[in-house]
Design goal:
Number of helices: 8
Strand order of the largest sheet: 1-2
Oligomer: single chain
Amino acid sequence: MLEVSTPEITAWVGRYMWPMFRIAGFVLAAPFFGANFVPRRIKLLFAFVLTIVVTPMLPPVPRMDPLAAEHFLLILNQVLIGVAMGFVLQVLIQMFVVAGQVISMKMGLGFAMMNDPSNGVSVAVLSQFYLMMVTLLFIASNGHLVVIEIVVESFYTIPVNVHGLTVEDLRLIPLWGSWMFAGAVLMSLPAIVALTVVNMAFGVMSRAAPQMNMFALGFPITLIFGLFVVWVGQINIIALYQMFVSDALQFMRLIIQA
C-alpha cells in the first residue's frame, strides 16, 4: 500500500503553491490577461494552468508549511512581484491611450467617447483605436510569450523566499508612471504642433476677415486635418512601438534584477 507522509504532501503542495501566487498576481495585473471583460474564473484557471506548465522548469523552492502564520509575508512578497511586472505592462498600454486622448482633445474629437471593455471606463475613440492597435501588435510580435518568459526568469533572479523586491525597486515602480506621460507626449507631439499651426492660421484669418465664422469653419477643418495627421503618423508607429516595448521589457528585467 502506498503511503505518503505529511511532509511529502506539504513539499509537493508548496512546490506549486508558492509560484502560483506570483503568477496569479501577474495575470491579474497585466493588461491582456487581467482585462475586466475576462471572468475571474478564467484568470485563475489560466494562472493555475500556467503554474502547472512552468513549475517543473523552476528551481526548487524551500520546504515550508503553507499554513504557517509567518508565511503570509512570503505570500505578500510573491503577489507584489507579480503585480509589479504586470503594472509595467499596464503603463505601456495606457501610454497609447493617453496619447490618443491628448490628440483627440487637440483636434476637437474629445466629445466622441466610447466604452473601453478592458478597463471599464469611457475613453476617446482615438484612444480606443490606439489601444486595439497596440494590443494586436503586442500579440502579433509574441509579446505575451516574452513577458511569460520574464516571469519564469524572475524565479531564478528572485527565488521564492521571504526577501522580495528591494526598497529601490519599490521606489522605481511609481516613478515609472512618469515614463507613460513622457511617451504619450512624444507620440502626440507631431499632431499637437501641426494642429497648433492650424489654429494659429485660423487666428490670423479671423483678424483679416472678421465677417467669417471661424468656429463653424475651423472645427471641421481642424477635425479633418487632425485625422490626416494621425493617418500620416502611422508611418512611425511601428518604430515607436518597438522602442517603448523594449524599454518596458528592460524595466521588467530591472525589477526582477535580471
